[in-house]
Amino acid sequence: MDIFRTLWAMLMNPKEFFNGIRVEGWKPCFVFFVCVTLVISVVTPVVNFLGIESTDLSSSYQAQIIAYNFAKDSLVPLYGDYAYMFETVLIFVLSLLILVFITLFLHAVYTIIGGSGPILNA
User: So where are the chain's domains?
Assistant: First the structure.
């Protein structure tokens, strides 16, 4: 249940939380991201299967929306309800790809505007 304590600390005092994790390095942050993403990747297809669509109002990750639309439009006609199992993998992989892209993009922007920190500060 340490993940919930970490989440609570982040929500209650984000500035202190993010300053503290800079000292820890990138691994704990990445592990936290992976754990949250795994939970979201498993729960989302179940919710979608029950009839609640992944939209901007109901989803926390853009990967959920992309995976849901792809599954609904392309996979459900081919595989039926089994398509939602593929959605789990899609959400997880897309989340990691988006994380890498956003990190690189923000580092490039900060470098262009004069920043000089390491990529992990992005």
Answer: 2-121
Q: Cβ distance 63 to 122 under 8 Å?
A: no
pLDDT digits (tens, 9 = 90+) for 16-52: 877 776 777 778 778 889 999 999 999 999 999 998 9
CB 62 within 8 A of CB 98: yes
Tracing tokens 């993010």 back to the chain, one arrives at 18
Residues 90, 44 contacting (CB under 8 angstroms): no
Residue-wise pLDDT tens digits, 95-105: 999 999 998 99
The closest of 57, 50, 46, 60 to 98, measured between CA atoms, is 60
